[in-house]
Fold this protein.
Amino acid sequence: MSTSPTDADLAFPPGFLWGTASSAHQVEGDNTNNQWSLFERRPGAIADGSIAGRACNWWTDAEADFDRMAALGLNAHRLSLEWSRIEPQPGRYDDRALARYRAMLLALRERNIQPWVALHHFTNPIWLETMGGWENPSVVARFAAYARIAAEHLGDLCTMWLTFNEPLVYLGQGWVRGLWPPQRPHPILARRVFLHLLEGHAAAYHALHAAHPTAQVGIAKAMRRFAPLRPRHPADRVAARLRTYLYEDLWFAATVHGRLLPPLGQGHRQAHLAGTLDFIGINYYARRYVHFTPNPLRIFAHEENPPDGELADAGSHGPPTRLDPAGLLESIRYVRQFNQPIYITEHGLPDAADSRRPRWLLAHLLALHRALAEGADVRGYFHWTLVDNFEWNDGWSLRFGLIALDPATQTRTPRPSAQLYATIARANALPARLLHDYAVPNLAE
Ligand code: FCB
């Protein structure tokens, strides 16, 4: 496989998945029974004062956007189930919600789009949140019961399952930074939630497999590959290493090897946690650069972009996303040690004008192709996202879609990137002409 971007088209392996990713609260509309539906109405919670509202209208008509995926030649889509719809009250399951999800998965399959399902993508039922949510040990059994119901009702239509999307982003935003509900930054609570997320993942993994032995179960893991902002500064280096340990190493030590490393445990092997990833999903946006600060509550650092580099649109918290395709290659190299199939379960950028997205998309796919040439078993790529949607704290102010959406009128306008992505997906290759036309730089080693 050639890695030079200039001479020939760069082919991807046969059967490679070209998809998009979404989550329930961000696209469905009219979710009124989860904690975000309460949180987003609090003054100041969302940067532009917006709410998810009708979102992309998927609860009523996801099929129209599934048609758009098919028209682009995509062959996979990753969505999430809204727990609060499926289990609106503790132990009471809603057949109509399950039927709607069945219809959505069927509609994807009818269009030759492989469905992927995540059980948890940041939202919880209000009843669960009221009982303490992921701080309450009972959440583990409740999450496993919900996983079993989902597998029993939907498992015949879907092989690829994610227990969690970005469990440690959920943890970090809620219990370290305190930006997202339940806004309870506290190290002891954060450790407790970490353990419950791991136990919940393992319990759901086993529940999904019990109901459907052929299911493939993993998570979408946000990869950051933290780096020191000042490369030779010892304190920045230690701070970057500490973040990598807490944010990346701990999760894999537990779910691959069954070991709860300090501060989670003493490192003894726990059989029920070990081997609970059938594949590894990477969500990658950019590497994070850390600058030491003497504050243990901030885990001894703040994140800042290096002075050089190309930036995407700025959100309300933290540095804007910086063009960094080498970090995707590094993320893939890191997870290869676990010897499981790899999927890029999210990548994208906020770029309302679509002035950077085409080149950034090509640059990251070139990095992905390099990883394939190195022998990495990467089997698919899911772009975040098809249609602009409700971007959490940033509301409707950040636009990640290949297709622009006016949420008030539901008018959709494809951005140029949509056609570009379609060209790549249909060719199952990175056409040399495009790499040349967009002046996509080759990667350093
Ligand atoms: C990821 C989230 C997803 C979306 C993108 C932009 O961290 O999983 O819901 O917000 O970022």
